[in-house]
Amino acid sequence: MIHPGERIADLFAKPVGTRLQASGWVKTRRDSKGVSFVQLSDGSCFRDLQVVIEAGVIPPETLKLATTGACVTFEGTLVESPAAGQPVELKADAMVVHGPADPAVYPLQKKGASFEFLREIAHLRMRGNTFGAVFRVRNQAAWAIHKFFQERGFLYIQTPIITASDCEGAGAMFAVSTLLGAREGLDGKPQFHLTSTDPADDFFGKPAYLTVSGQLEAETFACSMTNVYTFGPTFRAENSNSARHLAEFWMVEPEMAFCDLQGDMELAEEFLKYVIQHVLDRCAEDLEFFNKRIEPELLSTLTHVAESRFEHLTYTEAVRLLEQSGESFEFPVYWGADLQSEHERWLTEKKVGRPVILTDYPKEIKAFYMRMNDDNKTVRAMDVLAPRIGEIIGGSQREERLSRLEARIQEMGLRKEDYWWYLDLRRFGTVEHAGFGLGFERLLMYLTGMKNIRDVIPFHRAPGQAEF
Ligand code: ATP
Ligand code: MN
């Protein structure tokens, strides 16, 4: 009786009278006089399948195993549903239990459990409405990203996860080492000890880290194969309990040769709109749920963003607007300051009312590889700020001039030797090029309205959090 091929999403489109089987996990069962109702879900769509079982059709000792969380298959006939909001339901006459779930201990019992609690049972939370919807949107967004770049001839490349160069100079990196031995301490608990303190003895013969970005490697490919993108995990040891930061997150990084900042901004805007439109088209029911339950302005802002032209401002103009705003911000604003989330949100939400691209930031607050402007004070950087979340994309035109790049590396106290291959790109066949990085989970927060980044990734990694 097991035919896992057909999913509940497909059953709704079948004509009334069709004999079929439906498999999934029980959301709820309700027994009333002479009839039982089971809400069945297999994650394939937002809607549950309502299964109707008339008394006596299925042996009571079998039917009573259809409790919340149990995995079952029903067989029966598709009939018109008298209930509102669903065209059809399954009138069942046979049932198989694959795995029961003891109601006394099944953790996902209560409706309305908090997201904090659900994070502790992240291995089960996808069975509920919210997280089913989150991960369907995540899937469609990932597909849209690949589709967008593939339709434009971008090459998908995979950059290393272990790296020996600190791309951003950010410092917040996880070391990768085999010098750290584990043994049992006297108290029986595991204990670390260093087998050597010399990086030369380590696995790679020098300090190595989990990557914070694949950009530098992506640049090597752009300088051979023109347009490329990465889409993979990145790691930052951000020691903050922030709702917008994860220690492990996914990043999308396109890199384009023969491209300047203008081209970079155009691609970023087209890209965001494309992904938003794709998700609006493919996940309508999921988004309606988020709009109703999570973020009342979700659909209106997404539709608006997909249709509106992004505003462009220079950093200098933005700082002037912030200074004149009359708002009292927690962090002071002045030329040279790194903009905080509160500033970014004021600009995009209050001042402009749609996404804003800020350009030409002071060189001091940006990475060494960004192209210097003629003023020698600002660099060709751009950040895309979106209402509700602030920075969603960070990008730049890269410094393609060898002497300028070497000067910046020196100014910032980095070691030229570490970047020999990166500098080679400027030595041999250099070209104007540009790219950006999009935090995939930030995008998902935007698409779903979910307020905590830990709720849009299957199993979150954050300070003190590495369960599952
Ligand atoms: P923020 O100021 O928000 O920490 P950032 O300036 O460190 O961001 P970039 O180095 O430009 O970010 O990284 C590119 C993109 O990656 C960001 O625009 C953001 O979408 C995302 N991002 C950065 N750090 C994190 C993180 N810890 N968790 C999830 N996404 C992140
Ligand atoms: Mn950061």
Q: In summary, what is this structure?
A:
The chain is an alpha+beta fold and 468 residues long. The protein has helices at residues 8-11, 60-63, 115-120, 129-151, 215-225, 261-282, 284-293, 298-307, 315-323, 341-352, 402-411, 420-427, 440-448, and strands at residues 19-32, 35-41, 49-54, 71-80, 88-99, 155-156, 162-163, 175-176, 180-184, 190-194, 208-210, 227-235, 248-257, 311-314, 356-362, 378-386, 390-397, 433-439.
Q: How many domain units?
A: 3
Share of residues in strands? 25-35%
Name the bound molecules.
adenosine-5'-triphosphate, manganese (II) ion
CATH topology category name of the largest domain: BirA Bifunctional Protein, domain 2
Largest sheet data: 8 strands, mixed
Provide the helix percentage. Answer: 25-40%
Q: Extract low-pLDDT stretches.
A: none
CATH class of the largest domain: Alpha Beta
* CATH architecture name of the largest domain: 2-Layer Sandwich
Tally the helices: what do you get? 13
Structural class: alpha+beta
SS elements, strand count: 18
Strand-helix topology:
Blueprint: H1 8-11, E1 19-32, E2 35-41, E3 49-54, H2 60-63, E4 71-80, E5 88-99, H3 115-120, H4 129-151, E6 155-156, E7 162-163, E8 175-176, E9 180-184, E10 190-194, E11 208-210, H5 215-225, E12 227-235, E13 248-257, H6 261-282, H7 284-293, H8 298-307, E14 311-314, H9 315-323, H10 341-352, E15 356-362, E16 378-386, E17 390-397, H11 402-411, H12 420-427, E18 433-439, H13 440-448
Parallel strand pairs: 3-5, 6-12, 14-15
Antiparallel strand pairs: 1-2, 1-4, 2-3, 4-5, 7-11, 8-11, 9-10, 12-13, 13-18, 15-16, 16-17, 17-18
Helix pairs in contact: 4-6, 4-7, 4-13, 6-8
Adenosine-5'-triphosphate binds at residues 168, 236, 238, 245-246, 249, 251, 391-394, 437-439, 441-442, 453.
